[in-house]
Specification:
The complex is a heterodimer of chains A (259) and B (102). Chain A has 259 residues and is mainly α. Chain A has 10 helices and 1 strand, in the order ααααααβαααα. In chain A, α4 packs antiparallel against α10. Chain B has 102 residues and is α+β, with helices and mostly antiparallel strands. Chain B has one domain: Arc Repressor Mutant, subunit A, CATH 1.10.10. Chain B is 63% helix and 19% strand. Chain B has a 3-stranded antiparallel β-sheet. In chain B, a hairpin with a 2-residue loop joins β2 and β3. In chain B, α1 packs antiparallel against α6. The longest helix of chain B is centred in the last third of the chain and has 17 residues. The two termini of chain B are 13 Å apart. The chains are: A mainly alpha (259), B alpha+beta (102). Chains A and B meet through α1, α2, α3, β1 and α10 of A and α2, α3, β1, α4 and α5 of B. β1 of chain A pairs antiparallel with β1 of chain B, so a sheet runs across the interface.
Amino acid sequence: MTTRVRLYKLVCIENWFLGDNKMAGDIEKDETRAELEDLGRLIDRYAQSRSLPLLMLLPIIVFNVVLLVVTVELGLRYGALIGKWGWLAISTLVFLWVLFSSTWLPFKLLKRYGSSFYRKEGDIELKREKAPVWTWVVYGVTFIGPAFLNEFNIMPVRWALTMSLASFGIFILYLGKKHKEIALGFVYGLLCLVAAVVTAVGVRPLVMGRHSYFLSLMVYIIIAGLITTVAVHIYNRVILRKIKQVGLFDGQQTNKSDT
Amino acid sequence: MANRQINQIHNSINRVVHEPVRLAILKILTSAKEVDFNFLLTSLRVTKGNLATHINKLEAEGLVEVKKEFVGKMPHTSYRITRTGRREFQKYWENLKELAPE
């Protein structure tokens, strides 16, 4: 029995209550409700698996990686020419830009242009919760902390990389749940945690050399991000197809406003 | 259930919510914070005119809130369920449950 028929029967409930009791068995109220609940669940899953906006972050990450490596290299080569205060000013500006472009800017970009990837299918915004500030602080410390520990030779590349990747993975999992991006957060977070475990068991970092910690970290994050985008986008298409299959009214001209 | 009681419940069924397309629209709106016109078209697969008619009805009854804005040069219309709409939707299911018990 199609959903359309069930919904039609729902409309006929008046006939049933007016005394035509043979309709009672036919009205599958619970099933109708279950199908509407199913539709709600599918829509929830669909809205939580829109991964293409993640691609907007790629140019920012790549730009920041190049910027940081160039800044450090220039500092090492021409530090004496620039002078102590000049170097401090440049480092501070770069640091502020990296901080701004990895926190406030992505959120603004995603909010403003995120839906443009799905203009044809339309936009849906879910009720999202904000992650408390203390979780951002803990994440910031555990993510950036190992970079300093590694820079001052307190922590080897292997463990610094493990710690940063684990921190990133756990935070993404948490953020995915809070911001109602469960599919995205789950795949991305899990991939980063896998990368952390792989590094912890002793697999060589992807990039060796002076910037092995930083570049390996960024390469892992970018690769995990790309895999996530593709995998979640495929999942999103599957869900969309299911929503269309539900096809409650399937392009028909249903009865117009009746009152 | 006594006939009078059934009558009472029947009279309290909201006819605006009772229509299947509007019921589905309200269901979608209860799961989201805000939904635009295209999304409702994609998920319900009704015609544009039909959807607009139903939404106008829901808006007139104060069950949904309409937000019209321009994104670039394109008009963009989005909808959200009002507190009344949420309450009526909930009440509708409760009434149905009483009319057709397990």
